[in-house]
Design a protein that fits this description.
Blueprint: H1 2-16, H2 19-41, H3 53-84, H4 87-91, H5 97-124, H6 134-158, H7 162-178, H8 191-197, H9 201-214, H10 221-245
Helix pairs in contact: 1-5, 2-3, 2-5, 3-5, 3-6, 3-7, 3-9, 5-6, 5-10, 6-9, 6-10, 9-10
Length: about 250
């Protein structure tokens, strides 16, 4: 497992060496979302009975930061390695495709956790956010960041240029994230949009994560857990197949 630990350590150092860009900047961006939306909508929106809108918003923003940064970590690492050509050192090493997959995904999970924890700790200085079930919070955090880390590997392998990766993020990841219930409860939507939201896997990650804080959710956390696990297994299988066959890496 020496090769796995080496690649994993390299991926950790890659984002930590530029932590102002990879950690502090996302924390600041998320806090700006909180400041703007809470100021504008605090007195106009109530998602859950007895829960202030700002408090409702915090878990969604934390999870959004976790997901986006987990995706950004693996996808940016792979596209940079491919463009500069140093991906060859990973491919020529005696690493199995399972080890490569685990190293990239676990590093993405680590970055997602660091950013999410940063956002959460800063907000605790200003707002009192209840925490009903820590196991549910940790479960959806780990599953969600691992899923987006694996999806980032797919995007990093598929994209041949930075603009293709940007298109993947702007036209797939961002819309799914923003339309997942981060800023609202889906019960406030018209029936058509409520039904459509149930086809968004990001919704189940956000909703299950929020359940850990309030003990209230739009759907059952067990159902959300099943959906997220299914999506993670499917995306992981596809990622492993791409690594195994060397799709766009060895050919």
């Amino acid at each position: 497992m020496t090769g796995f630990y080496t690649l994993f350590h390299k991926e950790l150092l890659r984002f930590w060496k530029v932590s102002f860009q990879t950690v502090l900047a996302p924390v600041l961006t998320t806090l700006l979302y909180l400041l703007i939306f809470s100021h504008v909508l605090e007195d106009h929106v109530q998602a859950y009975p007895g829960v202030a809108y700002t408090v409702f918003l915090i878990p969604g923003l934390v999870m959004m930061a976790v997901l986006q940064n987990a995706f950004a970590n693996s996808s940016s690492s792979l596209i940079q390695s491919r463009v500069t050509g140093n991906i060859v050192f990973v491919l020529l090493s005696p690493l199995s495709y399972h080890e490569i997959f685990l190293a990239y995904v676990l590093a993405s999970v680590a970055r997602g956790l660091v950013v999410g924890m940063g956002v959460y700790l800063v907000t605790l200085g200003f707002f009192e956010v209840p925490l009903r079930s820590l196991p549910w919070v940790l479960l959806f955090t780990l599953l969600g960041s691992a899923l987006l880390g694996a999806l980032g590997v797919i995007a990093g392998i598929w994209a041949e240029k930075f603009d293709q990766l940007a298109a993947f993020q702007n036209f797939i990841i961002l819309p799914l994230t923003f339309l997942s219930g981060v800023f609202y409860s889906i019960h406030s939507l018209p029936p058509f949009w409520q039904s459509l939201s149930h086809f968004n896997p990001f919704f189940y990650m956000i909703d299950g994560f929020r359940y850990g804080f309030f003990g209230v959710s739009d759907v059952s956390p067990y159902f959300s857990f099943a959906i997220v696990v299914t999506c993670f297994l499917a995306v992981s299988w596809l990622t492993l197949q791409m690594l195994k066959t060397g799709y766009k890496l060895r050919h």
